[in-house]
Amino acid sequence: MEQAENQNDAMVAAYDDEAEASGWFGPEVVFGLTYRYVQPGQSILDIGIGTGLGSVLFRKAGLKVHGMDISPKMLDACRSKGFTFLRLHDLNKLPYPYDSESMDHAVCAGVLNFFSDLSSVFKETVRILRKGGLFAFVAGDRVESETHEIMVGPEHTK
Questions:
Q1: What is the mean pLDDT of the chain?
Q2: Would you tell me how many other CB atoms lie within 10 Å of the CB of residue 58?
Q3: Is the peptide bond before 95 cis (omega within 30 degrees of 0)?
Q4: Domain map of the chain by residue range?
Q5: How many angstroms from the chain centroid is the CA of residue 103?
Q6: Helical residues (DSSP H) of the chain, grouped into ranges
Q7: What are the tens digits of pLDDT across the range 57-107?
Q8: Residue 4 pLDDT greater than 50, yes or no
Q9: CA atoms of 41 and 107, how far apart (whole Å)
Q10: By C-alpha distance, which of 17, 139, 125 is closest to 77?
Q11: pLDDT band at residue 149, thresholds of 50, 70 and 90?
Q12: What CATH code would you report for 2-157?
């Protein structure tokens, strides 16, 4: 058990460095897609917040960042960056721990590629967003040998 915890600690510590070294610009892309539509003081939910990498720019822009993740260690990394509105939650478990129409916006960077069916993620995000809220997302890069299973269509985004 201790070896698994040490491996998890090392993974969390290296996460941001690896994202930078691999040229992962998902957080910047999501921010670029939304910055004209978000306002300081608004709330934003980061679905699968990880270490908080995808929400740093939103926090700098004055948004109140909320995040949920399945990993306590990732949430600890978020706290070390100053994020405080965090919840431990498995994204496969419904409902998500937020009230209906409780968030102005939502983002998800590099997480959707872990789902074979996106319906539940989109359904819960729509429930949580206030009218007129944005949901911006990007999927992680894949190598050629990985299958491409994600299909986001109008049934998800309306």
A1: 85
A2: 24
A3: yes
A4: 2-157
A5: 14
A6: 2-21, 26-34, 56-60, 72-80, 119-128, 154-157
A7: 999 999 999 999 999 999 999 999 999 999 999 999 999 999 999 999 999
A8: no
A9: 16
A10: 17
A11: low
A12: 3.40.50.150
